Amino acid sequence: MTIAAIVMAGSRPGPDPLLTGSGASTKALLPVAGQPMLVHVVRALRASPLVGPITLLAQNSAELAAEPGLAGLADLHFSDSGQGISSSLAAALPDDDAPVLVTTADNVLLTPSIIAEFLVGAEDSDVAVAMVERRVLLARYPESQRTWLKFRGGWWSGANLFRLRGRRVLPLLDFWGRIERDRKKGLKIIAAFGPWLLLGAVLRLFTIQQGIARAGLRFGLEARVVPMSEGEACIDADKPADIVLIERIMAGRNAS
């Protein structure tokens, strides 16, 4: 069995400093190590035997479909999205409860091994989120700057990989649409799930696994954190320094 994948490849409102002087019209097509970000991500998905059809979501999907680096890759589908992440994703979900794998166009260091580790850990969940604990990342890449969620037993950063069980997650996506503007503000996100979850996070009364599980219960969902063993899983291309680090990692991969 394979899982369908969705790649969120749209642009957020407002200017993106990464695009200044680059000549790229959208972040997904910004070159990294000689290829647009999106090409690296789609090729990693296509190289995984666990991934089936791939849908690319963007405000102007025809622009992505014209990218030469995607030519010849099987089972790619292009769909226009709206302005919001949650509403666009909700519209792209299957008509039933079939699971989908979701990632982003800036998840440039994605590999088949990262995909496999995540999907094994996410199996049978309604919602699964890939995350990297700070010690795992800093052991290899101490210069990497991420946004950390602090819980009992560790500090965690998201890895832009999600497994969603089809339309069962629509209430969660509707909720996320109301708070996604605060996606980089960890405590605001936690507070939106209720005062008990916020208090527990501030006082570190529970682990992130317990916190995510409790958040899922609010929507009747079995929600799970999948801890990733490779620090690269949470290094996405948000800042110029990220791209420098990503290109160094890619050069090392090619050399080996």
UniProtKB/TrEMBL annotation:
What are the MobA-like NTP transferase domain coordinates in residue numbering? 25-133
Which Pfam families does this chain map to? NTP_transf_3
Protein name per UniProt:
4-diphosphocytidyl-2C-methyl-D-erythritol synthase
Report TM segments.
186-206
- Keyword set, alphabetical order: Magnesium, Membrane, Transmembrane, Transmembrane helix
InterPro entries given for it? MobA-like_NTP_Trfase, Nucleotide-diphossugar_trans
Could you cite one Gene Ontology molecular function of this protein? nucleotidyltransferase activity
For this protein's source organism, the top of the classification is: Bacteria, Pseudomonadati, Pseudomonadota, Alphaproteobacteria, Sphingomonadales
